[in-house]
TrEMBL record, chain A:
InterPro entries assigned to the protein according to its UniProt record, in alphabetical order: AAA+_ATPase, ABC_transporter-like_ATP-bd, ABC_transporter-like_CS, P-loop_NTPase, PhnK
Signal peptide: none
MF terms in GO: ATP binding; ATP hydrolysis activity; lyase activity
SUPFAM superfamilies xrefs: P-loop containing nucleoside triphosphate hydrolases
Keyword match tRNA-binding: no
Domain ABC transporter: 5-250
SMART domains registered for this protein in UniProt: AAA (SM00382)
GO biological process, alphabetically ordered: organic phosphonate catabolic process
Keywords: ATP-binding, Lyase, Nucleotide-binding
Alphabetical list of Gene3D superfamilies matching this protein: P-loop containing nucleotide triphosphate hydrolases
Organism: Alloyangia mangrovi
Annotated protein name in UniProt: Phosphonate C-P lyase system protein PhnK
TrEMBL record, chain B:
Lineage of the species this protein comes from: Bacteria, Pseudomonadati, Pseudomonadota, Alphaproteobacteria, Rhodobacterales
UniProt name for this protein: Alpha-D-ribose 1-methylphosphonate 5-phosphate C-P lyase
Similarity comment: Belongs to the PhnJ family.
Reactions that this protein is recorded to catalyse: alpha-D-ribose 1-methylphosphonate 5-phosphate + AH2 + S-adenosyl-L-methionine = alpha-D-ribose 1,2-cyclic phosphate 5-phosphate + methane + 5'-deoxyadenosine + L-methionine + A + H(+)
Keyword Membrane: no
GO molecular function per UniProt: 4 iron, 4 sulfur cluster binding; alpha-D-ribose 1-methylphosphonate 5-phosphate C-P-lyase activity; metal ion binding
A biological-process GO annotation: organic phosphonate catabolic process
Keyword Cell membrane: no
Amino acid sequence: MTPLLSVQGVTKHYGARLGCGDVNFDLWPGEVMGIVGESGSGKSTLLSCLSGQLAPDAGKVVFDTRADGPRDVLTMSEPERRMLARTDWAFVHQNARDGLRMGVSAGGNVGERLMAVGARNYADIRAQAIDWLGRVEISEDRVDDRPRAFSGGMQQRLQIARNLVTGPRLVFMDEPTGGLDVSVQARLLDLLRGLVREMGLSAVIVTHDLAVVRLLADRLMVMKGGRVVETGLTDQVLDDPQHGYTQLLVSSVLQV
Amino acid sequence: MTDQAYNFAYLDEQTKRMIRRALLKALAVPGYQVPFASREMPMPYGWGTGGVQVTAACLTPEDRLKVIDQGADDTTNAVSIRKFFERTAEVETTEHTAEATVIQTRHRIPEQPLGEGQILVYQVPIPEPLRFLEPRETETRKMHALEEYGLMHVKLYEDIAHNGAISTAYAYPVKVEGRYVMDPSPIPKFDNPKLESAAIQLFGAGREQRIYALPPHTKVVSLDFEDHPFEPSKADHDCDLCGCGTSYLDEVITDDAGGRMFVCSDTDFCASRQAQGHRGALSPQEEHA
């Protein structure tokens, strides 16, 4: 079996400072990888490099494309990469406003990716949009409302629907639960876990919230100062942390 | 200063040369927006500075010019631009579509089909069809380059979702030769089928500094959905002056008690039909001797 995403020695410098250094990992089909670390540890830089939004200084990001097998994303032409980004990939932003079109109705937001890949039948597009809104627990009568009229949690769920409608194989998530209150977070996590299992998605989740990775991720990577300091199965890393920083991270979670 | 102090058609030769180069490029790549160094013209932006520059670059002393504004030859914009070229280029002008070699228009295509050898110049306020969907110009340029036009259909989707039908009635987006999506300037969508024409069509946007063009017989398709096809629409009436049932109509309010009449927006078309003896419901009664 070939890994869906193979990351080899990805390095990014911002001038003299290190963004992320020499990151290696393989992501297998159906696997969810969590990346945790404090602010400034290079998580988001790494995610941007992986998703083709930022060009790393060195390294390879090999994605197993449907048509041509494994290919280095970084050497692809821009049209190919953008095509990939709207078919096989999805990107869930921390702030739903970054990932949604705020002036376009919920149905239009979900339908955009469909229309971008050539759907030209209004009734079909609308039926799919309503179906997906249902899957993320947004009722059908909100389909023509703009995202402005939605709560933060609903906006985030709408963003997820918008991203998953074309059946991507790989989802990048940047702090998907950031800025949501705990009960809404719990529902969103529940929903995400269901969708990931049901659709057999692979995902890379960047977060500083250990509860999120505990629930969603199969494997975990802990970053500090741009370097990966520990990797392993989620439960193993969280229950038996080896590196000093991981121990600190795990012990600083507040217990209620 | 006398009018002869100006160069022919107001612009200096170097500027006209620059505009002609942009026009040739635009004709070579139909629907592509070519940047050009738009000049300040002796009229405000929004009054047709783009169209005037394109017309000035196309005019020769032998040309016969017609200027229309919303279909009419006698409105402020049309009259002042016609006068401008009468003074600065001393070309002949006409109100008859068939006699004109260069026609500058704002928001309409003449009813009478144009032929080879005619040039139709449009005044364009906003050349970018994706403008109100994607605010970043860097991004829209990339979308044109990569043919990513899904967003254009999102606008039509929104129309149907909110109004039950595609309610975009003017500046209706078209796809040119299966490649570029183009804003045909704010012509009513009734005129969209006429974009496939034997004449050369040039679009000038002065403030936005863009020129684009449709060569003769270019394929122009109005965007739509399979289950909501494009429909060129007009007021469901006949012209009250010439009785024409197939021309684009203006609604004219005649009193403050709900009185109204519908007349052809193309004044030359209406007048020539009346001259041929066609009469509408509200035509003045013929006087009996």
